[in-house]
């Protein structure tokens, strides 16, 4: 039997695949994954071809390679170009890929597609603030999708666990920015500017009560230590002082220059 001709990947399809690469763990790159099955069907491709493409991207990921994960050889020149573009401009490619992914499943900004262990679910979108007109409505959809992409990417690369404590309750986890996105909008969606923290550790980090050194070890501020002894504080903070955070499993480690900024400009 003659081999079926391969269908060339479009740029838009590669952006969707890269979007999923950011949101799924390596062990989920298989054709039985309901997320891959649903997305591939919407793309007009087979689940196997999409799963293989994710593994092609893994072969380009230096963090994966450092972990001993080689991925699937045979990444095309177009794969490499999309990978480089993402690494160079997360803000543009992140939101473009999120728009393309969302548009596979929803036709309006009132609903959004969200991935879970059971597949892609469509649900009513979270309304940040009521829009006053079409232009503002479009802007709010973009903001919401940007936030969703960043959150899902950061939680995924940290294995859906607080990088300090290991807490693995999604409702308690925050995709925290190292340098404020309001001051550094160019790094708003950059995984190097993200940490997965529990809500209490996110609040402490954001307010400068804790930080991390160049070796990614937790440091407590004198301001926080003024409230010792408190059993809850000691369990949640003192117990982890000086310990190295869990490392991301792909894409990139926290940027050391961003952490330096936090230590000098935010840490108390």
UniProtKB/TrEMBL annotation:
| A Pfam family this chain is assigned to | HNH_2
Domain (HNH nuclease): residue spans on this chain? 162-213
Q: Which InterPro entries match?
A: HNH_nuc (IPR003615)
The domain of life is Bacteria
Quote the protein name from its UniProt record. HNH nuclease domain-containing protein
Q: Which species does the entry assign this protein to?
A: Pedosphaera parvula (strain Ellin514)
